Amino acid sequence: MPGKLTVLEGVTIAEAITAKWEQIWNFQARDGDVLIDTYPKSGTTWMQEIVDLILHDGDEQICRRAPTFERMPFIELLHLMKPGIEVVNAMPSPRVLKSHLAVHLVPPSFWEHNCKVIYVARNAKDTATSYYHFDQTVQFHPDPVSWEDYLEQFMKGDVGWGSWYDHVKGFWEQKDKRNVLYIFFEDMKKTPQQVIRKVAKFLGKDLSEDLLNKIVKLSSFEHMRDNPMANNSGFPKEILDQSKIVFMRKGAVGDWKTMFTARQKEVFEDHYKRQMESSTLKFQDPK
Length: 287
Ligand code: A3P
What we know:
single chain; alpha/beta; four-stranded parallel beta sheet; 40% helix; binds adenosine-3'-5'-diphosphate
C-alpha cells in the first residue's frame, strides 16, 4: 500500500518518518561525525561514495565492504531498515551519516558537536524529473499519478521532504554560520576533480594527483552503476521497489528536457523566479 505524507514544522514528510520523530530528533551525533544532507535526488549517493573513497584513500575493496546504506546510514530511516539505531550507535567514530532533512529539522546534536555537513544541491528541474521517477519506487510515499500533477506538487513543496526551494535556501543561509560545505551536482558533473579536492580538504585530507584520478573513476556513473555496493540495488524492496525504475537512472544534467513541455517550462520558471528572487543562491540552469 502506498504511503502517506503529513506536515512537520512546515515540511511535508512521510508519515513513516514522523511516526518515529522523537527518536530521529534525539539522534546522538558525536564529535567528528560527518553528515551528508541533501534534498532527495541531488546526488546524495554519489557524494556518499566520494566521501567513503576519500576517507579510505581510494581503497576499492574497503569501499565495497557493504552497501551504501550500511556504510553511511540514513538517519531518518533507521527504524525501517538495516543497520538500525543500535548498530549505528555502536559504530566507531567518525561516522558518515546521510539525511534529507531540512536544515531546521536536522537533529540538534549535529550542530552541538560542530559536525561537518556536506550539502549537495541540484538544479530544480532535473531534481523534479529525477524525483518523479524515483517516487514511483518509494514505498512509503504516495505513487505519482501523472507527471503533470507531480510537477505541481513539487512546486508546492507537496512531496516527501518538502519544498526544494526552502531546502536549498535553508542550508544556503546557514552555510557560513555553521560547518557546512555547499556543493552543486552540476559542478560534480563538470569538474569532478575540483569538487573532490574541495571535499577532501573539508575532511582534512590531502589527495595526490593519482589518488584524485582514481576516486574520480571509482565514483563515476558507470562505475557506481555496475557496483552493487554503490548502486542501491540492495535497498530493501519494501522501501524501494526498483522492478520498473532503477536507482542509477541517467545521472545527467539537463534531463528535464525529456519531461517538461514548453508550457510547463514557462510556468515553472516563472514560479522559480518568485521563489528564489530574495536569495543570493544561484544555480547553473541547464538550457
Ligand atoms: P537521475 O535520476 O537523474 O539519474 P540521490 O542519491 O540523491 O537519490 O540522487 C540520485 C541521482 O543521482 C540519480 O539521478 C542518479 O542517477 C544520480 N547519480 C548517482 N550516482 C551518480 C554518479 N556517479 N554520477 C552522476 N549521477 C549520479
